[in-house]
Amino acid sequence: MNTPVPVFAIIGHPNEGKSSVLSTLAEDDSVRVSPTPGETTEVQHFPVIIDEQEIIRFVDTPGFQNPRQTLDWMQTYDGPSEQLLSTFIATHNNDPDFHDECSLLTPIAEGAGVIFVVDGSRPVRNTDKTEMEILRLTGAPRLAVINSKEDDSSYLDIWHSEFRKHFNAIRIFNSFRANYVQRIELLESLKSIDQRLEPVLKKVITTFESDWRARNQRTADLIVDLLRTVLDYRTTATCKERDDETRVKQKLVQNYMDDVSRREDQTRKAIRTLYKHNIFDLEVPPHSILQEDLFSDRTWEFLGLTDRQLVVAGAISGAAVGAGVDLAAGGVSFGVFSALGGFLGAAGTLFKGKDLLDGFKLLGFKVGGESIQVGPAVNIQLLFILIDRCLIFTSHVINWAHGRRDYDRKSLLKEQDGDKKGYTSHWNSDDRKVCSQFFHALQKQDSEALEKTSSQLNEVIVRQLRRMSEE
Question: Of the candidates 307, 309, 273, 345, which has an alpha carbon nearest to the alpha carbon of residue 432?
Fold first, then answer.
């Protein structure tokens, strides 16, 4: 026997967070967000489907049209209580003055629970009390959600006092910070409104959590695939005249940079789709480091590892770490490709600062006969910067509320003088060692070591994604 799919009707006034709550729970950015009363005139169903199976359903409702008259009718009703809603709907179904009430109450009459959303930054009105009493009389399991920003708490005590009279549970919710954590917390709150809902909602939450882990795993796969492709990139061109060598190198390098940017963009789009941002484009904040080109000085100064971290990563992994100092490849200046160079294979190798600098470029060049080969990458810093940029973008995606259509314009990472602010600069030595060994395996074209280190790097990234999800 199949377990029935739990259904919840989302009720509230326009521009008070109802759509954001719905979008968060259904993880659906197609929910219309409008401040105009009367925009929603019919119920709309939002099933949540995981692995081709519907696990829960949310219903968008039009809100109340004539709450005072509706409550008056219910208070004078003297029939069986279990037939209150069906009788009201049958009585008023063809009355345009109660069209919205009939639409709103129909899913509740069919067994849906109630999620009532209000704006906690305003005072309680008589209309709110009327609507609360109507919902109490329905007898449905009821959760009250107070949509409130951190600085809008002056009316919270009053809302709580009123809600305790009419609802089974109360939850404070911030629609501007609605993410995976808030989604799970809302679902956990629903478990408390009716004991009979606990088993099915427990299963729903378990399914959500499993699906989220699968997305994190797939995101890590995408990032590692990007690294393998970009860091192992190599291409050749013909150079018949010796004088053409500089021009050919310039073209090859530009083609490489364009290809890396294109592949990075493709990975971002795939990550965005994984977390179900399908309709509205996610606008990166204007001051985010993601607005910078991958190959800009600021990107390399801001992300990746410090010189000392690069040295240690190479030393403890036994890998060769190559980098360059303000080098030009065939006349193309790379500016910040000036981290460290040298081969550090022994643990305990002392950090000697700029004495370790050597003439390694971002990309290796091989010239033979009439052919020039560019790639693979010889600067391990590129690996850490690519990881940082992918993780910053993923953080942006998972923390963007599905019902949100704007952004507060704050950068995702704050700059501090002289500090590296990417994720990888805060990883421990073991995780950096995995990165270095992965890079070394790519350079050596060691397929066995590459598969092993790819799996290990995948696990490191998954752990980081888990930490980001739980923040």
Answer: 309
